[in-house]
Amino acid sequence: MNRTDFHKLFKTPGPVVLPVIHVLDSARTLKNVEVLLEAGAQGCFLINHDFEPEKFLPIIRDTRAAFPSLWMAVNFLAVTGKVAFPILGQLQSEGCQVDAYWADDACIDEDGANAEAKEIAAVRESSGWDGLYFGGTAFKKQRAVDPSRYGDAAREACPFMDVITTSGVATGQEADLGKIETFRAAIGDRPMALASGISPENAMSYADVDCFMVATGINEPGNFYDIDPGRLADLMSITRTLSKGSAT
Question: Does domain 3-239 have CATH number 3.20.20.70?
Answer without folding.
Answer: yes
